[in-house]
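seq/struct pair 1
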Amino acid sequence: MTKPANPALQKSLMDVPVRVDVVLGEVRMPMEELVAMSAEDVVALERRTDEPVEIYVSDRLMARGRLVVADGQLGVTLSEIVDSREAA
């Protein structure tokens, strides 16, 4: 990526908040089960751990990736950039 010629523009662009969501999976459960859960309960998601996760930027699908654990931290590595025309 090329740097903007104007350093002030670069700084202002880096200050724009962007929401990034990584979708690990989803599950539907009755509200009664949800409110009865405790901190130790585990919820089984519809997606397996070896399946790609979806990465959304500002509610738009932008990429897919794989879950990784590095230095005890859960992370994601990008494996595919989604064509914005495909994701629409």
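seq/struct pair 2
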Amino acid sequence: MTKFSTDAAGFAALTISELILQQCVLNGLFTGEEARRLLISAAKRHEAAASGTDEKIALNMEAAHLIRALSSGLEPLFREQRNATPPKTPQQKTGSRPNWVRFPD
């Protein structure tokens, strides 16, 4: 397997995560508010983990800052969903099983 730098891997993971988050909101798997809470929770986890060595503190605080910046960048998506008609649940769309995903507050 080709070796990739941690910077490239992290950047790719961020892009994939952002697109998955957008599609989950757009497809009604969860609301914009739930997505916002997910990002806030992730940022808080990094802030809480910011202890130990200076390098670990800096890395976690930078990750928290990045997550908060991502949340700000996605704000138009969150607002659009707030004003839109409620999306159909996945079960209503396809007849499949109900959405079982729950995110922390």
